[in-house]
Each structure stands twice: as C-alpha cells, then as structure tokens.
Amino acid sequence: MTAYRWLDWAREIQALAQTGSHYAENVFQRQRYQRLMEIAAEIVCEYSNLDYPSVKEAFLTPIGYTTPRIDVRGAIFQENRLLLVRERMDGGWTLPGGWADVGESPSFAAEREVWEEAGFRVKAFKVVGVYDANRVGRLELFHAYKIVFLCDLLEGIARPSLETTEVAFFGKNELPEVLSGERTKIRHIQDAFTCLENPSCPTYFD
Fold this sequence. Notes:
Layout (H helix, E strand, L loop, with lengths): L4 H19 L3 H20 L5 H9 L8 E10 L2 E7 L5 E2 L2 E3 L6 H13 L1 E13 L11 E13 L7 E7 L15 H12 L6 E2 L1
Parallel strand pairs: 1-6, 5-8
Antiparallel strand pairs: 1-2, 1-4, 2-3, 2-7, 5-6
C-alpha cells in the first residue's frame, strides 16, 4: 500500500478493468471495463496535477493480464565502496538501473543499465533482494517490483550519461544524503553492503 489510498484504489480499478477487458466475451463487457479505466484515470487527475488525456491513454494502452513492472538495479563494489549515479532528473543518487525491456533477462537488463548509466561493464552473480516498489514519487501510475543484483565489475571508466550527471563510489559511512526518490532506498543500499560483507547471506524479499 502507498501513502495515498486514492492511488491504491485507482491502480486496483485499472488493473481489474484491464484484466477484465482481456477476458471480455463481447463488446458490451469491454465498454464497461473501459469505463472503469476512465474512472480510475479521473480519480488520479482529481488528486494530482496530471492531465486527464495522458493518464487515460496510459491506463488504456496496456493489454492482457495486468502484472507489476520490473525495475532492475546493479550493486557494484570497488574496494568496499558502492557505485552510485546522480540522476539528472532530480539530482538524487541511486544504484544504476531502470526498467527491464521486453525480451531481456533480468540480469542482462541490470548489466545493460549499469553500462548505459555509469560506463562500467559488469556481470550479475547474486540477487541481493526482490522488493515491492509501489512507487509514489513523481506519481508513478503503475505498481512495480525491484530486483537488486550484486555484480562483479569487469572493466570500464566512470562515465555519466543522458540520464546521469555524476558517477562515484561511496563507502558505507559516507553515503550521500539525498537519494533519488523511489529508485533507491537506504534499505537497498544496506542490504547490498550486507551481501558484500557476508556472501552467504540469504536473498532479501518482500
């Protein structure tokens, strides 16, 4: 659950309507489910500064059975210091990562994101944790799961990207104060350090 009940309700209505539309047996059922998706969009717009046409389009575009989206992150260490990137969008620091693309394995998606955002080639070898990522920062409309991978650093040099302005390594006691919204929470960082210090630690999950 998020801190905003109206967002929980809107997400659930949209998910039920999308799934119902997928299994609808006639045009009348599909019309009713489409109206439910419109109501979900109206709820979001009533309590946010988003415009109705864009929210409606976002809710109506997905097809099939509704499932959470997947956010992947790479935890990379160099001399016990953790790699973080500063997001251009909000100036906060985060583990490099982003949405997994269709057709990619989760580990490959994390490795790709680290290369694109930080300039390092890495190899994922352990899942730190699988987390509920019910995003509310910048009003993300859809529910997500977050997978954090512990990765070996293979090669490369620190290189910002179109999405990042800085790339740096931080010790456990020198972490930046400002993290990037919902992308990385202190919990994810702490779990990554625990896995580094104790390679046999279990995978964390919600």
